[in-house]
Amino acid sequence: MVKVLMVIPDRCTGCGRCEEACSLYHFNVIDPLLSAIHVVRIENEPVDAPVFCIQCGLCGIPGICPENAIYRDPNTFSVIIDRDRCTGCGNCVAVCPYGMITIDRIERKAIKCDLCGGDPQCVKACPEKALVYAEAEDVAYYKRVFFAKLQRKELVPIVPYPSPKPAGDG
Amino acid sequence: MEEWYGYTGNILRVDLERGKIVVEELNRTWSKLYIGGLGFASKVMWDEELPKLHPLSKESLLIATAGPMTGTLAPGSGNIFWAFKSPQTGFWGETRSGGKFGAFMKYSGFDMIIIRGRSERPVYLYLEGCKAEIRDATHLWGMTVHEATNAIKEEAGAKEVSVAAIGPAGENLVRYASIINDYDRAAGRSGGGAVMGSKHLKAIAASGGCGIKVYDPERFLSLCYEAQRAITSDSGNKAMGMHGTIGGVMSLNAMGGLPTQNFRTGYFENAYRVSSDTLERNYMIKRRACHSCVIGCSRYSYVSSGKYATPPNEGPEYETVDMAGPMVLNDNMEAIIRFNYLANNYGMDTITLGHTISWAIEAYKLGMINENDTGGLKLSWNDADMLLTLVDMIAYRRGFGDLLAEGSYAASKKIGRGTEELVNHVKGLELPAHDPRVESKFLAIQYAIGPRGACHEHPIYPSYDLMGVDAGMREVGLPWPLPDRLEEVGVNRGKAYRIIALFGEVINSMGYCNFYAATVAKGSLNPSRIARLYSSLTGIEMNAREIFEVAERTWNIKRAFNLREGLEKAHDSLPKRMVTPVLSGPSKGLKVERPNELVEETYEAFGWDKETGYIKESTLQRLSLREVLEGLKRIGKVV
After folding, report:
1. CATH classification of the domain holding B312
2. CB burial class (10 A; 0-12, 13-18, 19+) of residue B100?
3. Chain A to chain B, count of Cβ pairs less than 8 Å apart?
4. DSSP-based three-state secondary structure for A100
5. Are residues B321 and B372 in the same domain?
6. What gap in Å lies between CA A70 and CA A64, rounded to an integer?
7. Residue B255 and residue A91: Cα distance in Å, rounded?
């Protein structure tokens, strides 16, 4: 079965090693600005969060990339941007709901997670095992727990869905 | 032009007097001679700092420096080092901090920043994409560290920015003001913040944009992963990550080594109330790590309500807990968290701060200081409110705080009346919360001869006999097994300390954190592992022995710097309390015997003269430090 990259949020200490490994693996340079994974650390709030592409494929929808340079890798199921064809127009950056695509400052081309071809370096570099690359079915379970937990308290907006009318009414 | 790997290859020179900025290429021979970090800084300070300059004068230098490993995937490498002449001691000043500022300074394109001159109006330095710019900071002057950091981040906009700033304490030239980066990470000791304040430099902000090239990416990546696996699976490192430095409170107390009541004793009966257990259970939100760290010892804590309510911030660390806890007999954890937050936000060294207050209380209780001195303030042990009031008064130099802002050493000189006897300092720097009478005689040696004064971390935490580990130093000649921790002279302590201190120099030059050298060889950044990582990163071949030779060079330059500033053998001596027995607790009666002989034994091991403490000519020749030799000859301080 396909594997999926996932995060266990409370484990992250914000060290940023995933960013370093990502840029080193892809560009032979250590530079968080060239990384496809980003650790958002807000020092004066308890936020240390690795954020990365969930491979939703929205950027790959026909009509977005003028060069048709975005495709889904059949092996890893990751959505890949062919940098040879990329012109850096930024359309994919605009549609990504999570801000996970950036244009690099050197070649002016899009950077996006490709799961390192099935051997994600960020997972290897994480000392806390906050990042895992696990079977899709297992991850699906944890995703359900994650979204369920988001519904605790008021973190998710209350949807004004009409309450069902009592049976036999009207 | 030849490429630089690991190093960015750029040195930034800033003259605040003229508002000038120059980017220089790093001298290629320096990498093999001094490695980087504090190694580079020692070279620059020796060459460029004018002798006998007042540390807060405008000609004095302030150096921010990162090692070649800083900002890379090498575990524990996210450090920034600062070097300057210490306003507290008048000798060599150095200090280290974690966080991510060091890494971001390198991502911005600089290995080292050399700052001189004094700006007329407050300014801050902004670094991005191998360029730097001096920006106005008039609106930031007077702000706390957190406020200034927030403001600078807002000005930078949609960018990741790391900020190192001073708070009101630095602006008001509190002698032990620190430089705080990334909100709460402190380059605390020796008074770097005061030097920065004297230059009217409020902050340095780094936003990256350059990146660090790697010589052999594949090999470096696999070496980093291998080191990471070894270090994270070591039980000592696991414990450090799980409980942080504050984990030491209970164990040190059990052996009578928890400095209490201005070092009168080493046992605090309410230690549990200020232990890691108490912190974790009630106040800790999460663990945090500095950049690229695989241990993650930092605590992130807060106090939700009550009179000591404190917003989330990093800490407290063991040192702060002891200085604001047992040292002043305070057992209120909430007050300690608040103390830590205030000290960081005002930008003050928590060790000297707590220690100075502890000294003042003892002097007050003994009648050497009275209410005329304190402006009516009554000082007493176990008074958390008074403690926090004093923190405010010191940062803003109000009333009695103005005197305490000088540190206990300078304050006692002003006051006299026997208070000098109560100061626990070496060269003017107060002792940190590790007691050499109880823990290890290596500590006694380091406190006595350490270039920046009494310090447990510079160059390294030396209690290897207490820990019973060697961190891989046996391969470079550490005598093993080490003598019993309480044995003093005649057991090769000097020889062993030489290797230990040089290892510290290696770590400070490479850009590592000392906590990566505190376990068994396998789980440490041992010398050969450091050499392998360095070679694959930079493409410069060096083995463990060669790296230690560099360390000996930088160590001797620092010594020479201090000699030039007027250091004599008498400065290398322990305070009176260290040769006085511990009053009570499990370590009752312990003291450092014959400290002079300990020091002399170490002098000999380093190739220094036993009678004067001067460096021998043969030692300097062996290390090819010709300029240093000539400089010392001119002032007649070479044997």
Report:
1. 1.10.569.10
2. buried
3. 105
4. coil
5. yes
6. 9
7. 65
Examine the domain organization and report whether B261 and B292 are in the same domain.
yes
Query: Testing the interface with A: which of B291, B533, B538 to mutate, by most A Cβ within 10 A?
Result: B291
B304 and B409 inside one domain: yes
Look at residues B423, B455, B479 and tell me which one is the last residue of a structural domain. B423
Measured between its terminal Cα atoms, the distance across chain B in Å is: 43
Task: Quick: pLDDT tens for A19-74.
Answer: 999 999 999 999 999 999 999 999 999 999 999 999 999 999 999 999 999 999 99
Residues B139 and B253 in one domain: no
Q: What is the pLDDT of residue A148?
A: 86
B124 shares its domain with B260 = no
Strands B112-116 and B62-65: antiparallel
Encoding tokens for residue A85?
């064809």
Query: Does the interface ipTM go beyond 0.90?
Result: yes
Angstrom distance (rounded) from CA B612 to CA B339: 42
Give me Rg for the CA atoms of chain B: 23
Residue B97 lies in a domain: yes
How many angstroms separate the Cα of B321 from the Cα of each of B272, B337, B439? 12, 8, 18
pLDDT confidence of A170, banded at 50, 70, 90?
Answer: very low
Q: What is the pLDDT of residue A145?
A: 87
Same domain for B137 and B50: yes
What pLDDT does residue A62 have?
A: 95
| Structural domains in chain B (count) | 3
From the candidates A11, A30, A103, A111, which should be mutated to test the interface with B, based on the most B CB atoms within 10 A? A30
Chain A interface includes B150 (CB < 8 A): yes
The reported pLDDT for the residue numbered B475 is 94
Pairing of strands B112-116, A131-135: unpaired
Q: How high is the pLDDT of residue A1?
A: 82
Q: Do both B511 and B584 map to the same domain?
A: yes
- Rounded to the nearest angstrom, the minimum Cα separation between B474 and chain A is 28
Q: How far is CA B335 from CA A8, B350, B384, B400, in A?
A: 33, 13, 6, 21
Structural domain harbouring B177: 10-206
Mark which of B423, B450, B476 sits at the end of a domain. B423
Averages of pLDDT over each 10 residues, chain B, 639 residues:
92 97 96 96 97 96 98 96 98 97 98 98 97 98 98 94 98 98 96 98 97 97 97 96 96 97 97 97 96 96 96 96 98 98 98 98 97 96 97 98 98 96 97 96 97 96 94 95 88 94 97 96 96 97 96 98 97 96 96 94 97 97 96 96
Is pLDDT at A159 greater than 80 in this prediction?
no
Taking contacts as CB-CB distances below 8 angstroms, the residues of chain A near B183 are 43-44
More confident call, B625 vs A10? B625
Q: Name the residue in chain A with its Cα closest to that of B5.
A: A29
Please report residues of A whose CB lies closer than 8 A to that of B213: 28-29
The pLDDT of residue B551 = 97
What global pTM score does this model have?
0.96
The verdict on B111 and B255 lying in the same domain is no
Q: Are B232 and B238 in contact (CB under 8 A)?
A: yes
A105, B224: Cβ pair inside 8 Å?
no
Which contacts of A82-89 are long-range, i.e. CB under 8 A and separated by 24 or more positions?
A83/A107, A83/A109, A83/A110, A86/A110
B266 within domain boundaries: yes
How crowded is the C-beta side of B128, counted as CA atoms within 13 Å?
Answer: 14
Distance of CA B41 to the CA centre of its chain: 14
> What sign does the CA torsion over A40, A45, A48, A51 have?
negative
Q: Which residues from chain A sit within 8 angstroms of residue B150, using beta carbons?
A: 44
For residue A124, which residues of chain B lie inside 8 Å, CB to CB? 225
Residues of A in contact with B102 (CB under 8 A): none
User: A residues 48-87 near B, CB within 8 Å?
Assistant: 48
pLDDT at B375: 94
| DSSP structure class, residue B265 | B
